[in-house]
UniProtKB/TrEMBL annotation:
The keyword ATP-binding does not apply. Residues 24-109 form the Ig-like domain. Gene3D superfamilies: Immunoglobulins. InterPro entries: Ig-like_dom, Ig-like_dom_sf, Ig-like_fold, Ig_V-set, IgSF_BTN/MOG. GO terms for biological process: regulation of cytokine production; regulation of leukocyte cell-cell adhesion; regulation of T cell activation; T cell receptor signaling pathway. GO terms for cellular component: external side of plasma membrane. The keyword Glycoprotein applies. This is Ig-like domain-containing protein. SUPFAM superfamilies: Immunoglobulin. GO terms for molecular function: signaling receptor binding. It comes from Ameiurus melas. Transmembrane segments: none annotated.
Length: 116
């Protein structure tokens, strides 16, 4: 069902996300700042599904169990950022955030690189 609330864009970080050994947050927000609680959110790294948020439930992708989370308490304000813990060199690269509200889907790519 198409409503006025499904007119949104995804806003990512202004630069590359820095890799830190413990935790990294891949920033992604809805604009305007509307609730994402009832939307479907998917994060991918290349073709691998990192996590899916659907029906207010988060499912972690294979290989990411116990290492990823979404800021579910901040989704009311449009925060759909991904937090990745215990980062590995293999975690570096491009991540795709895909947000679906009804028949509208927006996506944005966020790059995570190693700190120098």
């Amino acid at each position: 069902m198409a409503t006025a609330s499904n007119k949104f864009k995804l806003i990512g970080p202004s630069g590359r996300e820095e890799y830190k050994p413990s935790v990294v947050t891949l920033s992604c927000h809805l604009s305007p700042e509307i609730s994402a609680v009832d939307m479907e959110i998917r994060w991918f790294k290349e073709t691998d599904c990192v996590c899916v948020y659907k029906n207010r439930h988060v499912t972690e992708g294979r290989g990411y169990e116990g290492r990823v989370s979404l800021f579910t308490q901040e989704m009311e304000r449009g925060n759909v950022s991904l937090q990745l813990r215990d980062c590995r060199r293999s975690d570096e690269g491009h991540y795709l955030c895909q947000v679906t509200d009804g028949d509208r889907t927006e996506e944005i790519t966020v790059q995570m690189c190693k700190c120098s």
